[in-house]
Design a protein that fits this description.
single chain, alpha+beta, SHC Adaptor Protein, 2 domains, four-stranded antiparallel sheet, 3 helices
C-alpha cells in the first residue's frame, strides 16, 4: 500500500468502527427497552398528556392535573372544594383542579367502595354535578 494512502485508510477504518459501535449500541438499547414488555414508548409520547377518551388510567391518582388544559388551584380553594366534595360523596379527594369542560373547577374522588366520581363546581364553589368516573 502506498504510504500517502495509509492515513486515509486508517481514518476510514476508524470511522467505520465508530459507526458500527453506534449502530450496535442503538440496537442493544432498543432490544433492552422492549424485552419482556412487548411494547415500546417513544420519548416524545412519554412526555405528552394521556389522550382524553372519557376516562384516564385507573392508577393515575396524582394530585397534579393530568391534562395540559387544566391547572392546580390555590391551596385555600382546594381545601374548600375538597371539604365540600368529601361531604357530598363520603369519599376521598385525590385531586382538585380547574375544569376545561362544563364547569369552573372539579374534584376527583375515590369513594369508599372504590368507585371514582368527579364533582363539578361553578365559579363560586357550588357543586353543580356529580359525574361517574374521571369526568367527561
Amino acid at each position: 500500500m502506498n504510504r500517502s494512502k495509509l492515513p486515509a485508510a486508517v481514518g476510514l477504518l476508524a470511522a467505520g468502527a465508530i459507526a458500527g459501535g453506534i449502530v450496535a449500541g442503538t440496537m442493544s438499547a432498543n432490544a433492552a427497552d422492549t424485552s419482556g414488555t412487548g411494547t415500546s414508548t417513544s420519548s416524545s409520547a412519554a412526555n405528552e398528556a394521556p389522550a382524553q377518551t372519557g376516562t384516564l388510567p385507573a392508577n393515575n391518582f396524582s394530585s397534579s392535573p393530568v391534562r395540559g388544559d387544566e391547572s392546580s388551584v390555590s391551596s385555600t380553594l382546594a381545601a374548600t372544594l375538597k371539604q365540600k366534595a368529601e361531604a357530598k360523596t363520603g369519599g376521598t379527594v385525590y385531586r382538585v383542579e380547574t375544569d376545561s369542560g362544563d364547569a369552573t373547577y372539579e374534584a376527583h374522588v375515590k369513594k369508599s367502595d372504590g368507585t371514582l366520581v368527579t364533582i363539578k363546581f361553578d365559579k363560586n364553589g357550588n357543586i353543580t354535578a356529580v359525574e361517574d368516573g374521571m369526568g367527561k
